Amino acid sequence: MSAISENLRITNDTKNLMAVREFMSRMIRASALPPNEENKVILAVDEAVSNIIEHGYEARIEGYIDITVDVTDEHFKIRIVDTGKNFDPERIRDPNILEHVRAGKRKGLGIFLMRQIMDEVRYIFKEGVHNELILIKYVRPPLPGAPATPPAPPGGNG
């Protein structure tokens, strides 16, 4: 597979999340990532973009979010750039999930999910320029002797 790079620019409006999900789905399907990673990677990107929309811009200030996906045989890299308020996810510690659930919290797991799903999560803030979030998922070759596709469930058709 040759390298692929595509960009999507959206405004900071939640109505654009569906376009982001569709863009990510198309890019994942064009990559060497296994199909079982598709929804996970889409969730990580959805969380990142939702956080930017919700927290990055003051109310009623329109801004742009650029999402660039670079696909190679080795990795699936997402670069998300915005001009909203700076925010460093490195300052956020992973929550205690049991306490989080017990407290009935419904928000606050986005960064945790990104870290669990992606192999790398990096943040760069360029003062007066932009915020840049890099999410990377490495393409892992199948284990030796593993089937190329998962086996059919027992009792299936056939």
How is this structure best described in words?
This protein has 158 residues and is an alpha+beta fold. The chain has a single domain (4-138), classed as Heat Shock Protein 90 (2-Layer Sandwich), CATH 3.30.565. 28% of the residues lie in helices and 25% in strands. It is built from four helices and five strands. It has helices spanning 17-29, 38-55, 97-102, 110-117; strands spanning 4-11, 64-71, 75-82, 120-126, 130-138. It has a five-stranded antiparallel sheet with strand order 1-2-3-5-4, with helices on one face. The relative contact order is 0.18.
By secondary-structure content and strand pairing, the structural class works out as alpha+beta
Query: How can the largest sheet be summarized?
Result: 5 strands, antiparallel
What is the total tally of β strands?
A: 5
Terminal-residue CA separation: 34 Å
Given this structure, which CATH class is correct?
A: Alpha Beta
CATH superfamily: Histidine kinase-like ATPase, C-terminal domain
How many domains comprise the coordinates? Answer: 1
